[in-house]
């Protein structure tokens, strides 16, 4: 069974920084595309940033220049460095990974349980 576990959320003042981590565990062959999503109260879940297995990245416009997504394939871990945080960044942040159990089987998407990020003075 594959599990994704996020950590690093918390309460931070506007302008502050947080670093989220998403660690994958269990038996699998490879992690393909991975991404961070967030869901604010009363809003739909939205994509924040994605990173391919080769390291290519893409960001939603509202976080460009402030957030950086990265991954350590040796540790099966993805990160989201969030700088210059704003109150509108407040949300539950989820990680998602496309996990290939075997070289012969197409990958499936797995989600973490979410971590709360609150930006407030």
Biggest β-sheet strands, sense, barrel: 7 strands, mixed
Query: What is the share of helical residues?
Result: under 10%
Structural Rg: 14 Å
> What gap, in angstroms, lies between the N and C termini?
40 Å
User: What fraction of residues sit in β-strands?
Assistant: over 45%
What is the strand tally?
11
Number of helices: 0
What structural class do you assign from the helix and strand content? Answer: mainly beta
Low-confidence segments: none
Topology as a string of helices (H) and strands (E):
EEEEEEEEEEE
Identify the overall geometry: elongated
Mean pLDDT: 96
Gist of the model:
The chain contains no helices and eleven strands.
What topology emerges from the helices and strands here?
Layout: E1 3-7, E2 10-12, E3 18-25, E4 30-39, E5 46-51, E6 57-59, E7 67-72, E8 77-82, E9 91-100, E10 108-111, E11 115-119
Parallel strand pairs: 2-11
Antiparallel strand pairs: 1-3, 3-8, 4-5, 4-9, 5-6, 7-8, 9-10, 9-11
């Amino acid at each position: 069974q594959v599990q994704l576990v996020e950590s690093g959320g918390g309460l931070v003042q506007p302008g502050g920084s947080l670093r989220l981590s998403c660690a994958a565990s269990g038996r699998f062959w490879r992690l393909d595309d991975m991404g961070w999503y967030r869901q604010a109260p009363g809003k739909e879940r939205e994509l924040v940033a994605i990173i391919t297995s080769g390291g290519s990245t893409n960001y939603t416009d509202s976080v460009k220049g402030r957030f950086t997504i990265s991954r350590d394939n040796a540790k099966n871990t993805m990160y989201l460095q969030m700088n210059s945080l704003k109150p509108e960044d407040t949300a539950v942040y989820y990680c998602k990974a496309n996990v290939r159990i075997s070289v012969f089987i197409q990958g499936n998407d797995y989600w973490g349980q979410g971590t709360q990020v609150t930006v407030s003075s």
